[in-house]
Amino acid sequence: MRQAELQCWLVDDSPTVRQVLLHLLHEQAPTWQLHEFASGADLLRQLSNSRAPELILIDLNMAGMDGIELLRHLAARSCNSQLVICSGAPVRVLQSVGELCRALQLKLLGTILKPVTIQAVTDLVRLVEQPQRTEPHKPVTAPLQVHEVLRALQQHQFYPVYQPIIDLRNNSLRGFEVLSRCSHPSRGLVPPDAFIGSLEKYGLIQLHTFDNLEMALRDLQGWLEQGLDLELSVNLSPQLLDDLTLPEQLCQLLDSYQIPYTRLHLEVTESSCAGTVATRLDILNRLVLRGFHLSIDDFGTSFSSLERLQELPFDTVKLDKGYIQRALTDEACRASVESTLMMARRLDMRIVAEGIETLAGWNMIHNAGCDMCQGYYVAAPMQAAQVLSWCQQWQQHYH
Ligand code: C2E
Ligand code: MG
Ligand code: MG
């Protein structure tokens, strides 16, 4: 669709707000076709008589039918327009309305806080007009079957790839997250979404994790010998936290490559710490006592707060890429990221923002005072053979 045909409707019961919004939108997106409505009922009437617009800006607090009720009607009509909530309601209300939209399966593009600023409208227009980025490697792949994962393990089809983690204070490279890939004989490159679940289901995840870690430690040993000062982050499936011997096994493996334990960050997802049982707490605490670092992965994907997580011995929080990407367009979500950052600082925890894909993302987290970042904007995960030359390039250009 050409952007010139983009229909944007806005509904607000205040004539002044409508006037300001129309003016700003007209300036920032002169080709959009703008239509204003003074009530939800007017908008629904128009919706019955014409095709749904690409974009609807909705005020929450309206006399008569309020914005929440309008959302319910839009959901009942399976409206697939992109929605923007535009409101002076407190941030926590906007966040909860965001959850409601997800529950109603409406497409919420973002929120704009009132009073509306030029910046908020410019961000919105840029977001709507920019082509959606596609991920470099994300084919939808069916999960590997039991015989396929067994063969992949026996024939060494799994291998680690490395994604840089950058310290935002001075642009220096802190290390890499180790992610796993499978080179399948007929399916080609298979992403972890298609095999981690299978490995867990068939009780093979521990074997795979140690194989992958061993390859990564061998690579790290080489890089340290070349004079690079790097740390590695590895993902631990929750199942590994059910084996009380995990700390000893990890220590043995690192000892055999003479890698100090402090060079390893162990990432555990937020959800796998929910209702943490005694065994997991035992393991997590012994890992920290030995010097390993612990990170909470995918923070922002469930409802836990940092206050609750501080009862666990983590020193790093990784903000989920979805949470970061939403924050770029959703002022309420951005406020939530900022308050997480403030809380993390108070708790003396390090924050890594994942999924930084653009300069706008980099600037947002940099300005918010985030410690580290990771994402395609810096580099996609790469194979071991590319790491040294990538490090040299990074140091030459950015450090
Ligand atoms: P994760 O630990 O949260 O890893 C980050 C994921 O985000 C990776 O996906 C990475 O490629 C992707 N990513 C990085 N930068 C960007 C970006 O700018 N934009 C977007 N959209 N995505 C980005 P990947 O490699 O497909 O891994 C997916 C998940 O699979 C990982 O999420 C992790 O939970 C799991 N995983 C990967 N390798 C292993 C492993 O060896 N063991 C275990 N247990 N889990 C693993
Ligand atoms: Mg991770
Ligand atoms: Mg993550």
List keywords for this structure.
binds ligand C2E, 43% helix, single chain, TIM Barrel, binds magnesium ion, 399 residues, eight-stranded mixed β-barrel, alpha/beta, 15 helices, Rossmann fold, 15 strands, 2 domains, five-stranded parallel sheet
Structural class designation = alpha/beta
How many helical stretches?
A: 15
Main sheet properties = 8 strands, mixed, barrel
Tell how many strands the DSSP assignment holds: 15
Q: Going by CATH, what is the homologous superfamily of the largest domain?
A: EAL domain
Structure, explained:
With 399 residues, the chain is of the alpha/beta class. The protein is built from 15 helices and 15 strands. It folds into two domains: 3-129, Response regulator (Rossmann fold, 3-Layer(aba) Sandwich), CATH 3.40.50; 146-398, EAL domain (TIM Barrel, Alpha-Beta Barrel), CATH 3.20.20.450. The strands form two sheets. The protein has an eight-stranded mixed β-barrel with strand order 6-7-9-10-11-12-13-14, surrounded by five helices. Strands 2-1-3-4-5 form a five-stranded parallel beta sheet, with helices on both faces. The chain starts with 6 loop residues before the first strand and ends with a helix. The structure holds ligand C2E and magnesium ion (2 copies).
